[in-house]
Amino acid sequence: xxxxxxxxxxxxxxxxxxxxxxxxxxxxxxxxxxxxxxxxxxxxxxxxxxxxxxxxxxxxxxxxxxxxxxxxxxxxxxxxxxxxxxxxxxxxxxxxxxxxxxxxxxxxxxxxxxxxxxxxxxxxxxxxxxxxxxxxxxxxxxxxxxxxxxxxxxxxxxxxxxxxxxxxxxxxxxxxxxxxxxxxxxxxxxxxxxxxxxxxxxxxxxxxxxxxxxxx
Amino acid sequence: xxxxxxxxxxxxxxxxxxxxxxxxxxxxxxxxxxxxxxxxxxxxxxxxxxxxxxxxxxxxxxxxxxxxxxxxxxxxxxxxxxxxxxxxxxxxxxxxxxxxxxxxxxxxxxxxxxxxxxxxxxxxxxxxxxxxxxxxxxxxxxxxxxxxxxxxxxxxxxxxxxxxxxxxxxxxxxxxxxxxxxxxxxxxxxxxxxxxxxxxxxxxxxxxxxxxxxxxxxxxxxxxxxxxxxxxxxxxxxxxxxxxxxxxxxxxxxxxxxxxxxxxxxxxxxxxxxxxxxxxxxxxxxxxxxxxxxxxxxxxxxxxxxxxxxxxxxxxxxxxxxxxxxxxxxxxxxxxxxxxxxxxxxxxxxxxxxxxxxxxxxxxxxxxxxxxxxxxxxxxxxxxxxxxxxxxxxxxxxxxxxxxxxxxxxxxxxxxxxxxxxxxxxxxxxxxxxxxxxxxxxxxxxxxxxxxxxxxxxxxxxxxxxxxxxxxxxxxxxxxxxxxxxxxxxxxxxxxxxxxxxxxxxxxxxxxxxxxxxxxxxxxxxxxxxxxxxxxxxxxxxxxxxxxxxxxxxxxxxxxxxxxxxxxxxxxxxxxxxxxxxxxxxxxxxxxxxxxxxxxxxxx
Lengths: 216, 604
Ligand code: SF4
Prior knowledge:
The structure holds 2 protein chains of 2 kinds. Chain A is of the alpha+beta class. In chain A, 17% of the residues lie in helices and 36% in strands. Chain A contains 4 helices and 11 strands. In chain A, strands 1, 2, 3, 4, 5, 8, 9, 10 and 11 form a 9-stranded mixed beta sheet that branches. Chain A has a two-stranded antiparallel sheet with strand order 6-7. In chain A, strand 2 and strand 3 form a beta hairpin. In chain A, helix 1 (21-35) crosses helix 2 (78-88). Chain A starts with a strand and ends in a 7-residue tail after the last strand. The relative contact order of chain A is 0.20. The model of chain A has no long low-confidence stretch (mean pLDDT 92). By secondary structure, chain B is an alpha/beta fold. Among the domains of chain B are: 4-202, Cobalamin-binding domain (Rossmann fold, 3-Layer(aba) Sandwich); 214-353 and 556-604, Transcription Regulator spoIIAA (2-Layer Sandwich), CATH 3.30.750.210. Chain B is built from 22 helices and 19 strands. In chain B, the strands form 6 sheets. A 6-stranded mixed beta sheet of chain B has the order 2-1-3-4-5-6, with helices on one face. Chain B has a 4-stranded parallel beta sheet with strand order 15-16-17-18. In chain B, strands 10-13-14 form a 3-stranded parallel beta sheet, with helices on one face. In chain B, helix 14 links the parallel strand 16 (394-401) and strand 17. In chain B, helix 5 (117-126) crosses helix 17. The longest helix of chain B is centred in the C-terminal third of the chain and has 19 residues, at 408-426. Classes of the chains: A alpha+beta, B alpha/beta. The interface between A and B is medium-sized, with 27 and 29 residues. Iron/sulfur cluster is lined by residues 260, 273-274, 580, 585-591, 598 of chain B.
């Protein structure tokens, strides 16, 4: 039997934005089991479904562009997977699309290179000023050790969007910009600005494409 | 009014686990219309603990089946959330709809352990509900049930009503009364007439010079409620699936209620007699339906002693046939010490390999006879050997210390047993570890040991050190419980109405989450007893004479006091009493008291 990856694009609405990444993983494991999909499992004493998430989302953020690779033992129609998940997921997790991919594609977590975030709130427009700066220093203190990072090189673009702004920046395991770090570095971390992850991308030949479009 | 969602948005950075307060988990009940009867099921501990409790799941299900009723949940808010509620001046609210508890018809607490009592008072305080029953002229009825309701006296001033025994039927009757009768006083009067209901304000307690009880009036006893046929009551197959990992985060199906082994220290074993089994087919149906509705990856067959289920040998393979291909694991808590249990464990460990735990409870045969734990050293060693043969390398052994008549010899026998198991394991594996864990014995009401005194804390500590010194070496671990916690538990467990004042004092001065080491303050409790003129040793350490009137004398579990005393005398004579399923009735009295019988449906 040929294994297959079904990648789904889903969202996290306000009502579930306080559920941590680890807990979301369990939500999906259980929803997939309720859906009765032919899940592929890890080997060993505690077999678990093989699931790979695009990128963890910080607590409190909403999202319209989360990705999950599901390993299935055999191919199921994409639309059917989407419908089953819509029926079994708890409210607050919309499923936008499901796409079958060859199981040799790069796992979504390793493939992601960029993300876009939407910022809303009275002072959100001030984020645009970041573009005029030559460096944006974020200071992180951990175990009495201070580390300074310049966030400026991680920013691709910032533009006005509806009544706030849209940020496109680096994401993934190599270089990653956390939106809360940016707000802190710009002294805008007064919790009045709402952040939504709009989407995740992979860079291919200089342009950003959807993780659903992964090639072998 | 702010909701939990608003509070989380506003104070996200200050709240450790926001998912405790969402109230929107899968299968949680939301209602658009205001229901006719609106109640809260309260568990006086943090979300992850409360959500693991079976009783709340059952009551949530049976109440919400009727669209006219809405039973929501409320747990003790963790100190981070408590601070925010206080700061924002928001009263404690239900999880599902953020309704202040004060606006409900009823708040029902589960009494699972004595050390949660300070949390109960804290929750009432946070809800701005008057803490004493006599001060509540309006607002919700405040009731309680669960095992600790069998000595309700330390909480008597705080509750309007206690429910004793199996709650399913009584709870529905109470909801019906709330639906039909709007007046608070009349509601109470109607509820008081139900069987299994105790109204503490109807009873007077008189004390003697020596502080023991002279008389409880009226003499009429309150009998527990009992469900005779478990198959006949509703059991939830769509339980709430929490977002957070709770302690027992899995499908839990109760296979039977009650236990007849007759361990003399075990309160639950006496309170929930006789054994009533669910039928095997019903259990299978419940397991499969719940899996389908929840998507859980683990199933647990729960009871006080699951290996005693009469048809377990058929049930387990039948279930495994379905579960194994789905990669769903089965767990059986409370394994018996025999080769049958190892056989079962082998059967279920096809999916998941964990350590094995056994509870010999005492180290020497003499001591095991005293507590009526009918297990021999040979049983244990044979069982351990079978486990090692089957590839287990880690065995956990549970014991109690501070048991009646215990000597240092009995303590050292625990260490010996641990070492023997390790030696045995070494024949099969190099990686063997044996973990010995001891808890300190707490005498409880309604058991044969209700007459005996607890070991003083220093004595418990000395015994723990003695064990520690004798359990050194590779492959041996020893873990123990804080004697201060066991002492407080002993004071409250056999406390009377006067102890209530100390609980209130302690809570007012900051006691809460007493089962959590980081919050437990023994000095504060000592101060509380002193301030209220209470000698805690009187409750914890004193051996009682045969004719002492206990604070729970008027609470009737069905097991006769004369039977318990006879068992106490047999304990002192180191004589055992067999399981009445095997040798016939041993005369505890419960069956005739409720015109019922042991029900071993599984085997039919
Ligand atoms: S009355 Fe007899 S048969 Fe019934 S539980 Fe008690 S000892 Fe067992």
